[in-house]
């Protein structure tokens, strides 16, 4: 059985004023399986190539916060109405060091595997 899913790529934007970014993760939401997860992989060398003075610890902390927010409710009660709402909050456009791409859709039989495949294809593959 295949189910629809939505995903967004997480981008590190070390200098928001320049708009340059590197893909560092993926958020995947599959409503049919109540699945909301994110994975991240921060590449220090590539980030430093964009901005030598980037605060790598801050980038990691922000990215890890998104991963944690997918796993369990945090923050205000309104942010925890459900996974669809949380996915919407996490993928809303923002002007910060971690920015989500536009949301894309697909179909999956196994969201864990799809998340791993997206990470490989969009983030970790050289």
Write up this protein.
The protein has 126 residues and is an alpha+beta fold. The longest helix is centred in the middle third of the chain and has 16 residues, at 56-71. Strand 2 and strand 3 (35-40) form a beta hairpin. The protein has 4 helices and 5 strands. The model has no long low-confidence stretch (mean pLDDT 92). Strands 1, 2, 3, 4 and 5 form a 5-stranded antiparallel β-sheet that branches. Helices cover 36% and strands 26% of the residues.
Instruction: Indicate the proportion of strand residues.
Output: 25-35%
Cα gyration radius (Å): 14 Å
Taken in chain order, the helices and strands follow as EEEHHHEEH
Class by helix and strand content? alpha+beta
Helix content: 25-40%
| Poorly predicted segments | none
Main sheet record: 5 strands, antiparallel
Number of helices: 4
- On the 0 to 100 scale, the average pLDDT is 92
Q: How would you sum up the global shape?
A: globular
Instruction: Specify the oligomeric state.
Output: single chain
